[in-house]
Amino acid sequence: MRTSAKAVILHDGQILLIRASWEDQECYFLPGGGQHARESLGDTVVREVDEETGLTVTVERLLWLREYIGANHDHPETEANTHRIEAIFLCTPTSDPGQLGGHAQDEVQTGLEWVPLGNIPAINLLPQTIRQPIASLTEVPQPQDTYLGDVA
């Protein structure tokens, strides 16, 4: 089982995304990554955002908890032993949002991009399940389920 923390970093109506080339497709991911032993999930997301984007952030609150059990989704034969839990946090940049450039980028990462929240439903943001909850952040806050469940 792998635990990780991801960041929804908002600034001026935009969200910071990692542009990537993954499994023969151009796509986007939220910044973040795997939790280290003895590291809180909040500390994980702050460290990972710094490594991948160069930004310093403050964690505001937990938005969602996403679980992924590979045997239940598209590639059960190759992902039968995959089980991930992701904590997705709302974060605010505390360093200059215009100064981007991480020092430990993921191998699939091809860039960083501030994307208007209104564009989220139309882009290839993975996992697809988080597109609508992210896009809805532009609306008047509605109570949402924090636990997204086992979703791809």
UniProtKB/TrEMBL annotation:
InterPro entries: NUDIX_hydrolase-like_dom_sf (IPR015797), NUDIX_hydrolase_CS (IPR020084), NUDIX_hydrolase_dom (IPR000086). Gene3D superfamilies: Nucleoside Triphosphate Pyrophosphohydrolase (3.90.79.10). Residues 1-139 form the Nudix hydrolase domain. The keyword Hydrolase applies. PROSITE patterns: NUDIX (PS51462), NUDIX_BOX (PS00893). CDD domains: NUDIX_ADPRase. Keywords: Hydrolase. SUPFAM superfamilies: Nudix. One of its GO terms (molecular function) is hydrolase activity. Pfam families: NUDIX. Its cofactor is Mg(2+). PANTHER family: GDP-MANNOSE MANNOSYL HYDROLASE, MUTT_NUDIX FAMILY PROTEIN. This is Nudix hydrolase domain-containing protein. It comes from Streptomyces noursei. The lineage of its organism: Bacteria, Bacillati, Actinomycetota, Actinomycetes, Kitasatosporales.
